[in-house]
Amino acid sequence: MNIPRTRSALRRKPLLLAVTALALLAPLTACGGSGTAEGDGKTLRLWHYEQADGALSKAWDAAIAEFKKTHPDVKVVFERKTFEQIQQNAGMILNSDKAPDVMEYNKGNATTGQLAKQGLLTDLTPLVEEHGWDRKISDSASVTARYDDKGEMGGEKWYGIPNYGEFVLTYYNDDLFKKYGVDKPTDFKSFEAALAKFKAAGVTPLANAGNDHPASHWLYLLALSKANNTWVDKYQSYLGKVDFHGPEMTYAVDKYREWLDKGYFDKKDVGLKGSDMVEQFVSQKRPIMVGGNWWFGGLTTDIKNFQWSTAAYPGSERTLGSGGNNWVVPTKARNKELAADFIDITMSDRIQKLIGEEGNVPLAAKPEDIANPKSRQLTEAFAQIQDHDGLAFYPDWPVAGYYDTWVAATQNLMNGGKADSVLDELAAPYEKYLATRP
Question: What residue stretch is flagged as signal peptide (predicted)?
Answer without folding.
Answer: 1-32
